[in-house]
Amino acid sequence: MSFSGNWHTLLEAAEERSPEATLITPLSHTKFRITDIQEFRVIIEILDSDDSQPLQRDQFETLYRRVQDASGGFELDRLPPDAEPYAAVLTLHPQFEIDEDAGILVESAAPTATQVIGEGLTETADRTEPDVGVYADALLLIDALERHDPTSMDTRDTETLIDLYTLLSDVQRGANDLRKDIADTLLDRVDHDQPVHAQYGSVQRTSRRSKSLKDDTEVLAAVEDAGIDRDRVLGVDPDKVDDALDVTDLHEQDVYDIDERAYVRKADVNEDVKATRLQGLKDRLATTESEEADALRSEIEDLEDRIDELTSFRTGSEVQ
């Protein structure tokens, strides 16, 4: 897929997020929200400072090319601080993910996790209810997949496809939020550089070295002292191009490659119907008498107990 196709996929994914969804940068752990999505840029607001920052399409393309050119993933410590939000937003694309252990931004053929850490919840908000919702949404999704073969989409009716799409979106969002909460809890339990193993895998606490460019004047002076033409480190400023469009007869087509296409995004979730269906599944399970049903009920109770335990407190930090 060309970058134009990937760009529109990214915009679609960004539009599906709640306006209150909080993202976090991979190195400095700066929290921000997307406030506006435009054809050629994404506007974000840094939560700690309320500063607004436009993220330009061409800069996303540059990062996209670097990820594709990098063998084994693009190293995050090569990002200047002002470029970190680009990496975080790019993970909204279903095929890009930040590997926190390896410190890289990677492209994958499979759906990936995002840098979203919350859907409008504050640091002190009770996270138990939405996290337990991961189980509820997953149970509803399993039920829907058992009733509808996901390998024959062309034969499914439109309402079925909408239901499957909605549930998959909800499970992805909720699972990522829960993953972040568990990472917060694990941070105080995992020693530096000492892997801790469990049944399905292991985790390891790591640290990263980040760097930022000095003042422009110092950077340009150093470059020139090294015998390098300063023009080699300067480029087109997208903000100035947009300003020029506003005050001249230039058209967007003169300076931008424009690609338009239609797409589908989740517009609403019927929580009442989901709750009713979920209760029906639980009631049906409660009246089923078999060893398998007893075992499943026990697993559900154990799962809910584990979720309650893991989400009963937060450390306020992120596993890196």
Average residue pLDDT:
75
Number of domains: 1
- Based on DSSP secondary structure assignment, what is the total number of beta strands? 10
Radius of gyration: 23 Å
Strand order of the largest sheet: 4-3-2-1-8
Low-confidence runs:
120-132, 262-266, 313-320
Q: Which range does the strand content fall in?
A: 5-15%
Helix vs. strand class:
alpha+beta
Largest sheet: 5 strands, antiparallel
Number of DSSP helices? 10
General shape: globular
Report the end-to-end length measured between terminal Cα atoms. Answer: 31 Å
What does this protein structure show overall?
By secondary structure, this protein is of the alpha+beta class. It has one domain (3-310). It is 45% helix and 12% strand. It is built from ten helices and ten strands. A five-stranded antiparallel sheet has the order 4-3-2-1-8. The protein has a three-stranded antiparallel sheet with strand order 5-7-6. Strands 9-10 form a two-stranded antiparallel sheet. Helix 4 runs antiparallel to helix 5, helix 4 (128-147) crosses helix 9 (271-286) and helix 4 runs antiparallel to helix 10. It is globular, with a radius of gyration of 23 Å. 19% of the residues are buried.
